[in-house]
Amino acid sequence: NVDKEVMEQMEEGFKKLAESKSKSLLKKHLTKEIFEKLKAKTTPSFNSTLLHCISSGVCNHDSGVGLYAPDPEAYKVFADLFDPVIEEYHKCFKKTDKQPATAFGKGADFENLDPDGHFIVSTRVRCGRAVKGYPFNPCLTEADYLELESKICGAVTSLTGEYKGKYMPLTGMDKCLQEQLIEDHYLFKEGDRFLASAGASRFWPTGRGIFLNSAKNFLVWCNEEDHIRIISMEKGGDLGKVYDRMVGGVEALGKQLQFNRDERLGFLTFCPTNLGTSIRASVHIKLPNLMCDPDEMKKLADKYRLQIRGTSGEHSEAKGGVHDISNQRRMGLTEYEIIKEMHDGIKGLIEAECKAR
Ligand code: ADP
Ligand code: CIR
């Protein structure tokens, strides 16, 4: 049952969003009809409401998407809203479509995207995982955060070989070290308003932390947006090598933790943009000629199904002409095919940059 106060907040938020100029996928797909159909529903295990799902987009009209799943069941209970958003974000993943089985393939198939080092500063590949048996951020208790952290910390600190490293909890972390790790692109930022209003910052910094291997090219984020983010990154454009390192880490962790994967949606994540493979493969890249015309650049990126972000990640500015360009969709293709889509797109952009000289 949805209580009166929540219902009033929901009605108010919906009205304001509907009247706004927001370009979010939430605004586009939360029609009056869908709102009325879903507003009294709750998820069976956690009692999550439609308000949990839409609060980020309702508070932040500048959201690109604006929708989050408070718990795994929300994708089914509120499917009338999630499905069209998923379909549009992931470029036509229809409600009758099914995420293919995991297939990582071999990174060695991909050549270095920038062997002479003219364009690419660094390459990063990440994926997200949810641990079976737990909801997402808005429904986690303080005890859940600590329990999850202890499980994840146990798994990462038992990694061996090139993955061997150290777990650093955010609680008690030296401020200078935290800022340096953020600036160096290792650690997630603090105070993201999109996440905060989605209910993802409760009990912060409890249960949050980062694992870093000794070579500083393999990382695991604990309890930020997702329970787990597994990341491989290094300078230069050797996508295959970076990808293979991430895959090795995911497989090693999968032997110790049970990941939550849905038959249709693939790996379950808090944000619907990360479902499916949950992979975002990005380069920090300089394309000065193409970037002279941002509208043309955006069109070209769309053609290759690539997304452009700023240098410090989503919702940030591009510093020194360096942009973060990655695959936009994460669903409907295997892991290998997602990497190939990004690889081919970046290759296309570099060719276009050379022609524009
Ligand atoms: P994600 O959704 O992958 O977590 P964000 O956009 O929040 O991504 O970025 C997380 C961090 O990763 C930021 O500090 C960002 O600058 C960094 N990052 C992303 N791609 C690269 C890259 N290719 N090289 C170096 N750092 C990167
Ligand atoms: C937004 O809607 O802008 C944030 N909630 C982030 C959405 C995820 N970003 C993306 O495009 N992959």
Automatic annotation (TrEMBL):
Residues in domain Phosphagen kinase N-terminal?
A: 6-91
What the entry lists under SUPFAM superfamilies is as follows:
Glutamine synthetase/guanido kinase, Guanido kinase N-terminal domain
Gene Ontology terms: biological process: phosphocreatine biosynthetic process
Binding annotation for ATP = 122-126, 185, 229, 280-284, 309-314
Entry keyword annotation includes Nucleotide-binding: yes
Which domain of life does the protein's organism represent?
A: Eukaryota
Enzyme Commission designation: 2.7.3.3
- Stored Pfam families: ATP-gua_Ptrans (PF00217), ATP-gua_PtransN (PF02807)
Q: Name one GO cellular component term.
A: extracellular space
Provide the GO MF annotations for this entry.
arginine kinase activity; ATP binding; creatine kinase activity
> What sequence ranges are listed for the domain Phosphagen kinase C-terminal?
119-356
Keywords associated with the record: ATP-binding, Kinase, Nucleotide-binding, Transferase
The yes or no answer to whether the keyword Chaperone is present is no
Q: Which family does it belong to?
A: Belongs to the ATP:guanido phosphotransferase family.
**Protein name, per record:** arginine kinase
Organism name:
Drosophila mauritiana
Q: What is the gene called?
A: LOC117142052
